[in-house]
Amino acid sequence: MTSVDGFSLSINGENRLVVDAVAGESLLFVLRERLGLAGSKNACEEGECGSCTVRLDGETVCSCLVLAEAAAGREVVTIEGLGSEGDLSDVQQAFLDAGAVQCGFCTPGLLMAVDALLDDDSKPDDLTVREAISGNLCRCTGYGRILDAVDRAAAARQAEATP
Amino acid sequence: MPVTIATSIDDACASLAAHPDALVLAGGTDLMVEVNRGVRTIGHVVAVDRIPELRGWSLEGDRADVLCLGAGTTCTDLAEPALASLVPALAQAARTVGSPQIRNAATLGGNLATASPAGDTLPVLAALDAEIELQSAGGARRLPLDEFVTGVKANALIPGELITAIRVPVLDGPQEFLKVGTRNAMVIAVTSLALVVDRPGRNVRVALGSVAPVPLRAVEAEVLVAERLDFENMASPDSDLVDRFADLVADAARPIDDHRSSAAYRRHAVRVLARRAILRAFPRSAPVTA
Question: Residue B158's closest CA among B284, B259, B20?
């Protein structure tokens, strides 16, 4: 195993120095194990489940498939950057209100995907929503309440945007 | 740091010349799966995802009928309306790759470099007779797709070379990309088929994916229908011609049994897709003669 020199990542607007990393570590691994940001979840490590979804320069990607060092100089936003306890984002609040969270493992990835969707399309139709979350697997809910939550979040964001 | 973040093609080629054994990292959606599994160790890496020259596209030629796509064009980019209107089958193929997260990262050049038999864009590139541009510190060369993809996950890249661009013709005529998998979203092709029509050239080109080590053209089927189809009215061929076309396309497949499907099912699926594609491309009922 080759260790690498320290490198910096911009995470949620903060510059974070990564030390002790080993060559080949994914952004997901660095977030969770080196930087203590455990909100992004680790399941499949092959881009199938979406539970590690982050925004990279605005685009949603699977952080398990991003080489951490190669993300230097790009803007990373993780679930920790979306909202915080006591200051939830509209999408987080909608998931709570709709009861769209069961075991919660897929939730951070879904929140990131839905947040990105609503940034692009404030009134997504049902097919657009289903497509937008097609890369996020949930084995508990059956998706019904997740779809309900997206509707609520879209409505909340529109209400916010309307003066 | 063993990772070089290249900002230009020259920069990337210089790094690759200095480290001929370096891995080229584009979207990472294939490479990082292998790294995470521990089946590929990372030495020097040249990241090419921040090279603006690799992200754009342009129309070339006197009649602006050749589309030059930067190798870093993502699947998301390919499915955007501007590109989808120029090469609809490529957009359809890109649209079936993975999930939105994967399509945001995965690139056309990466699909070629991986050269998986199931690579979704490869049958389309084969049907379009795409030309692949490769560059190294020593210069550039262009290869037709069938010389670039040489086997299962094998290609003609030599150490120090980078895929920089893909050229395809902009054709006047309908295009189809069809894929069979175990479900709709996020699935690897069991079988795929691309069909493109060149109306002025009065020909149809058909290519198959996931039924051989490399993408295959169904040449005999192409020859059969070129002589018999109604390119003026795009009228549907009669059922006898559709059957013969579908049989010849299925005959061109060289499928194997593996964990994803049986050879017999793959050949059956190819026949179904061929029939579906030709009828979608030639949808009109025969003109009524007065």
Answer: B20
Residues from chain A that touch B50, judged by Cβ atoms under 8 A, are 73-74
ipTM of the complex: 0.95
- Phi/psi zone of residue A72: left (φ > 0), alpha (ψ -120 to 50 degrees), beta? beta
CB contact under 8 A, A135 and B25: no
- Tell me the chain A residues in contact with residue B99 when contact means C-beta distances shorter than 8 Å: 47, 50, 134-136
Tell me the whole-structure pTM to 2 decimals. Answer: 0.95
Strands B149-151 and A14-18 turn out to be unpaired
Report residue A2's pLDDT band, with 50, 70 and 90 as the boundaries: low
Which residues in chain B show pLDDT less than 70?
Answer: 1, 286-290
Nearest chain B Cα to A22, which residue? Answer: B42
